Amino acid sequence: MPLRCRVGPASLRAPAHRNRRSESVGRRSRARWSHAASGLLHFSRPKQTIYAPAGGPQFTPPWTPMRSANCLILLALLFASRAAIADGGNAELTYERHVRPILKAHCFQCHGEEGQRKGGLDLRLKRFIEKGGESGPAIAPGKPDESLLVEKIRSEEMPPVDKKLLAAQVETIVHWIAAGAKNARPEPEQVGEGPIFSQEERNYWAFQPVRSVSVPLASASGGNAATITAQAGRLCYETPIDAFLLARLEREGLTFSPEADRPTLIRRVYFDLIGLPPTPEEVEAFVADASPDAWERVIERLLASPHYGERWGRHWLDVAGYADSEGYTDEDAPRASAFRYRDYVIRSFNADKPFDQFIQEQLAGDELVPPPYKNLSAEAIEKLTATGFLRMSPDGTASGGVDQNAARNQVVADTLQIVGTSLFGMTLHCAQCHDHRYDPIPQADYYRLRAIFEPALDWKNWRSPPAREVSLYTDDDRALAQKIQAEAAEVDAERARKAQEFIDRTLEEEDRTPEQKAALKEYPSVANISVGSLYLYDQRRDVKARQIETKRKQKEQQFVAETKARELAKVPEAERAAVEAAATAAVEKRTAEQTAIVEKYPGVLVTAATLGQFNAEAAAELAKDAETAAELRATKAADNLKRYSEKAAEIRAKIPPEEFVRAVTEVPGQASPTFVFHRGDFQQPKEQVSPGDLTILAGATTTDIPADDANVPTTGRRLAFARHLTDGRHPLVARVIVNRVWLHHFGRGLVGTPGDFGVLGERPTHPELLDWLAAEFMDHGWSVKHLHRLIMTSAAYRQSSRRNEKADAVDPENRLYARMSVRRLESEAVRDAILSIGGQRHDKMFGPPVPVMEDEVGQIVIGRENLDGERKPTGPVSLGGEEYRRSLYVQMRRSRPLGMLETFDAPVMSPNCECRNVSTVASQSLVFMNSAFVIELAKQFAARLEREASADRRRQLARGWMLALGRRATDDELYGAETFLNRQLETLKAQSPQADPAAQNHQALATFCQALLSANAFLYVD
């Protein structure tokens, strides 16, 4: 089956690798929560709403681009057509600007691409259209009603059903023909079979070199642009970023909003840079810091925090498509060593690794390390680990029941899509089956790019996932392992000798005939059946020990009786009867005479304990029996051999574990040729192509990507391509990266579609600023931290988010940045903030992911099940605090996303996420109402307040407010919180009059904490 575009109803995707589960919620009392939340709302004095369940009306979630490609295409064409008609009243309609984009999207596949054109009709140039095909000229300039093209599109005979034109598009073509079917410029006299790019396509902004832009001299609130002051409560130009933004704002009669207050600013910068809330002490320290560089010092401290790499590494892992499982099929097999790439990304961001180096290592790290990959240095391991970027796409090639060739081809296609959206900001995959319908990307260009990666992702000489692992073992590791193994082997040999001794002894001791013993010795495996674990042997020795002890007790009684009789016989006949009577009398009933007489003859009172005094021979025999029984019990074979096994295991535990990294490498001399697939069908290869970049970029940059570089042991294609992308001349890469950094600081990029800089994407709101930032980024060593400093020290970043009517009327979506946009925390930041505020966050970094499992109601939670011998779950296993690690470290199974993260829009990588959705749905409120995780952390939050604010209720509430919302509560807010808490206590006491008051106070406080966590003021950053 040929691969098809994922845009449209015929989308071919791998078998569903994900079973989306609805977030299951417990059946805890919702009435209790409803009453609690309403109490906190109702009894707060201010008229404005302070709290509401998640997704309430206080904030409008930031605008996000639609993720449906069909909708984007439809809207783009509709607006383009309407603009063309409107333009027709003011300017000439031209083929290149107005008509060609419509025909390219709907008709070029049959009447423009290379090969045989249907009906002989070529629509690539206006003169070709006039010439027509087998049915004659397609247009008659000035006469639309006599034009065959108009007849076909009006009758809906053409294009085919799935490519029908909109009414507005038909009218554009009709108006163009009626106006004389004009060109914008003379057409080329000669054209080949390759792609024809219009001047409009060549001049498209994203394909132009990054410009050297001068910072505009704008004024702010009547002040000079160079003035670094505040006037009339308004922020003025403080950085070049402000100058660019103010220049645009002033054209619209707008300016910046006032600076946000300090608690808002520090909460904003903490979540932006490290994804965690500031502590109350950090907030208070910043508020009280009057030094002129207080803000800059906060930024520098956070940029130096190890949590910075966790926060910004997560952003990159989205576009890289990071997951801990293979996806593609329902099996969704785990990726055991994927976490090493995650850790590489975190370390790279923390080190502020130059982004050009970061890109080169991910695309071609293996080509920077000379093979063979043995005895690797830390630097070499890092470079190989970086190539995990090219191993992130879903991969079902190790699963059964799939078409292997189709699955392999899909892995390559998905990898190229990840590269395209993350580095190019282009939808390259739309050219997999045909020329891109909207962007100037011919199908041949797609396969030229694919040829760069195919030597490492050779679908004809495929390496399954297990075969891609590179061992990190060194020769020293192997030598040490062999030495330790030899030591353990000696213990194993001793154990084997002991086992044989026990076997031989068993055969001798058992009640068998000589013939049976000989047969068992001849066939030791028969003996091993019963003696393998030596339980039978040990059992029989126990029986013998018990038999000896029983006989010993009988003998003991006999020896005591015989000794008494012998001692009594020694008494003179005259006294014998009196002595015997005294000896048999109870001690407490003996008379003085009896006591005196038995003391004269002590032998008649002999017992087992004193037998040795009167019968040494008998006592010795009894002692020997006791020793024999003890020896039988003390020398259990199973226990003896177990000690040997334990010792051997203890020795082997010292062997350094062999670790692996999932990397991309090439097999020398095994690079298969790359062909264009007809209609994207790998079973229909057409012409062979050479590796290369997009043809449309040839005017902006040149590239020389060898098919096989003789100077390196690999083909060198990916390394040459990576260096080409990062040489400072590529028009897309730096723009795409700085746009993503801007996106994560302001909630939307300067280009609103970060994964699509093409025709269907949005145009930059501030193109000069985008280019200035891209140039600044490259000029300062591709430093992302330099971008942070530029952005976060700007007046634009420090604005308040408060709306005003004038700005809303001019710019309702805040694309001009007259204020800071309110942003909802991402799923990971929500969970991490809850852990932080509850005082439970575990800051362990790096290493294998925290496992997830399905609980009894079907939702995915953190945990690992203990399995019995039949692989059946027997209950959860303690994770020793690992369950409280940051969300970045939670296992990302494509088919089993953690329930809470999924509810708050954590992406499922298929294959990657170029921009996250931000939804507002009821299930988010239900998480805060019923989630066991939230309820437990609310209790921990309450316990923290009780520890840190003693028993003072007002202090507890004030502390909770500061922890959760990052600012002090007003008197009115504290009044509302106290009223809420009192109402909760009244309800609890009415329900359980005899309950412990301390427990009720804690429960009421926990409910208050839960309400705080569900507030929009907690979930959103101003």
Descriptive report:
The chain is built from 40 helices and twelve strands. It is mainly alpha-helical and 1022 residues long. It folds into four domains: 233 residues, no CATH class; 138 residues, no CATH class; 183 residues, no CATH class; 174 residues, no CATH class. The strands form six sheets. Strands 1-2 form a two-stranded antiparallel ribbon. A hairpin with a 5-residue loop joins strand 10 and strand 11. The radius of gyration is 41 Å and the shape is elongated. The N terminus is likely disordered.
What descriptive keywords fit this protein?
single chain, 1022 residues, mainly alpha, two-stranded antiparallel ribbon, 12 strands, elongated
Task: Give a quick rundown of the structure.
This protein is mainly alpha-helical and 1022 residues long. Helices cover 48% and strands 4% of the residues.
Strand and helix map with partners:
Blueprint: H1 30-42, H2 69-88, H3 95-106, H4 108-111, H5 126-131, H6 148-154, H7 167-178, H8 199-202, E1 230-231, E2 234-235, H9 240-251, H10 262-273, H11 280-288, H12 294-303, H13 306-320, H14 339-350, H15 355-364, H16 378-386, H17 404-424, H18 443-453, E3 469-471, H19 475-509, H20 514-522, H21 524-531, H22 535-569, H23 573-584, H24 592-600, H25 611-614, H26 616-634, H27 637-652, E4 660-662, E5 674-677, E6 685-689, H28 717-725, H29 733-746, H30 767-779, H31 784-792, H32 805-810, E7 823-824, H33 827-837, E8 852-854, E9 860-862, E10 864-867, E11 873-877, H34 899-903, H35 922-930, H36 932-948, H37 953-965, H38 971-991, H39 997-1013, H40 1016-1019, E12 1020-1021
